[in-house]
Specification:
Blueprint: E1 15-19, H1 22-25, H2 40-46, E2 54-57, H3 59-69, E3 75-78, E4 80-81, E5 93-94, H4 98-104, E6 108-113, H5 120-137, E7 141-145, H6 158-171, E8 175-178, H7 184-194, E9 198-202, H8 209-221, E10 226-229, H9 231-234, H10 239-251, H11 256-260
Parallel strand pairs: 1-2, 1-10, 2-3, 3-6, 6-7, 7-8, 8-9, 9-10
Antiparallel strand pairs: 4-5
Bound molecules: 1,6-di-O-phosphono-beta-D-fructofuranose.
1,6-di-O-phosphono-beta-D-fructofuranose binds near residues 21, 56, 230 and 231.
């Protein structure tokens, strides 16, 4: 098994995953703020920035666009995903196999796990198949570890996020993508619970430049390996300029002030 640090999605042991599966997960509403983002090419172009170490997309977007970007962007194949039209208990259909993702050229795979959902057992079994096949292909596995379901109303409580990070370790993920629990201290607890599994912060809905950089800084100071972000990058008028700032905070561990001046 190749360690994450030796994989193409690692830049000096850190990672910035640009997520662009929102057309499926949330629907066209996420493209309204910056209408050009409905065109996948506009966001693939954003992903060519040096700060982006992988782009996370669903199968259809990978098949249609990755061949034109394979020299400039690392592909993270998001294996499962569900539309916002689904009104049932949190669950996520597996839309492509790891074997097929590898054939398309994936450098890593991603999988959503809704711990606490009534679908948790079947999702964990699907994750087992994906994780073991990813090992055969030497592909790092990123778990979108999102506790969610009937009994979980606030999926950002510090204990819940620490459990999400631990669940990713227990099930064999290389990277746990978790929501920010609200403070650097609570993020450090999650990082601690994840042991050797790397932890990355999930972006969330768009906030101000300063607020977002401060949150990312809090995560990095807590020992997080980086960020997986969508809207907070491509819903900005100038995503490349904002990526300059994220590059400073994540890879150079600068202050937020320094990053804002880039
Ligand atoms: P954002 O940074 O825009 O939140 O994207 C990260 C992500 O995990 C996407 O991959 C996914 O589409 C979305 O968030 C799912 O968010 P949620 O399930 O919380 O609505």
């Amino acid at each position: 098994m190749r360690p994450f640090e030796d994989s193409p999605i690692s830049r000096d042991g850190k990672v910035l995953i640009l997520a662009y599966d929102h057309g499926l997960e949330h629907g066209p509403v996420d493209f309204e703020a910056v209408p050009e983002t409905k065109d996948p090419e506009a966001v693939w172009d954003v992903a060519t920035h040096d700060a982006v170490s992988a782009m996370a997309v669903q199968k259809g977007i990978a098949e249609a666009y990755y061949p034109s970007y394979e020299d400039d962007v690392n592909l993270l194949a998001k294996l499962n995903g569900t539309s916002n039209l689904w009104m049932g208990e949190p669950d996520s259909a597996v839309n492509w196999t790891v074997d097929y993702a590898a054939e398309v050229g994936a450098d890593a795979v991603g999988f959503t796990m809704y711990g606490g959902s009534n679908s948790e057992v079947e999702m964990a079994e699907e994750f087992r198949d994906a994780q073991e096949t990813a090992r055969e292909h030497d592909l790092p596995v990123v778990m979108w570890s999102y506790p969610r379901g009937q009994g979980l109303k606030n999926d950002k409580k510090p204990d819940t996020i620490a459990y999400a990070a631990r669940q990713a370790l227990e099930l064999g993920a290389d990277i746990a993508k978790v929501k920010y629990p609200g403070s650097s201290e609570d993020m450090a607890h999650a990082v601690d619970m994840a042991g050797p599994t790397e932890v990355v912060m999930s972006g969330g809905s768009k906030t101000s430049d300063r607020d977002f950089l401060e949150t990312v800084k809090g995560a990095i100071d807590a020992g997080a390996t980086g960020l997986a972000v969508g809207r907070n990058v491509w819903q900005r008028e100038n995503p490349a300029a904002f990526l300059d700032g994220l590059e400073a905070v994540i890879y150079e561990e600068t202050s937020v002030e320094e990053a804002l001046s880039r």
